[in-house]
Amino acid sequence: MKRTRFAMLLPLCVILATAALWHRARSEFSSSSPDVPIPMQVAGMLNGPVAVLASPCYSFSHGDVTAWRLAVLMLAVAFQWAYIGRLIDRHHEASRRPSPRGYTVGALGVLFALGPPITGFTTNVGLIYKAVALAWSLLMVYHFTGFLRNARAAA
Fold first, then answer.
1. Which run of H or E residues covers position 94?
2. Residue 30 is inside which H or E element, if any?
3. Are the beta carbons of 60 and 25 closer than 8 angstroms?
4. For the packed helices 127-154 and 102-113, what is the interaxial angle rounded to 10 degrees?
5. Which residue, 8, 30, 57, 115, is the most exposed by fewest CB within 10 angstroms?
């Protein structure tokens, strides 16, 4: 039986941390400041690719956020970290099987990898947030070019 400890544990821990950071950011809200509160930036750094979906982060800390929108954000966070946990759990297994579908997945993934730095550089966040967004982007490009390499091997 395959173990799925990280695939289950990572989403749970990150959802709890993200929810706590979001509530902290809401308590630090200041209508006179256009800046995104530090706890919201930390939550964005922790969940880089999902922060693209929450863009701009500003509305999550300064505006009225519906329960539905927050639930969708948390679901996206859970999926992201379940995928990362699954990769960690299966790191000893054989690499991905070659598939011609890899061209599509790889190309879309590399395009999506451009989102974190674009979002990071166009919002009013700190330099560390921008560096973490760039790191997320590079990691995603590395991961999704693996699909392109395997697709080439299948052809």
1. none
2. none
3. yes
4. 170
5. 30
Q: What is the pTM of this model?
A: 0.76
Q: In this structure, how many other beta carbons lie within 10 angstroms of the beta carbon of residue 23?
A: 10
What are the tokens at 115?
């989102």
When pLDDT is averaged across residues 58-81 and rounded to a whole number, the result is 75
Which tens digit of pLDDT belongs to each residue from 87-140? Answer: 888 776 655 666 777 788 888 888 888 877 777 777 767 788 788 888 888 988
Buried-state track 58-95, b at ≥16 Cβ within 10 A, e below 16? bebbbeeeeeeeeeebbebbbebbbebbbeebeeeeee
Angstrom distance (rounded) from CA 155 to CA 99: 8
Q: Does residue 59 surpass a pLDDT of 80?
A: no
Q: Is 22 exposed, middle or buried (0-12, 13-18, 19+ CB in 10 A)?
A: buried
Closest-CA residue to 56 (of 117, 120, 114): 120
Tokens of 113: 């990898």
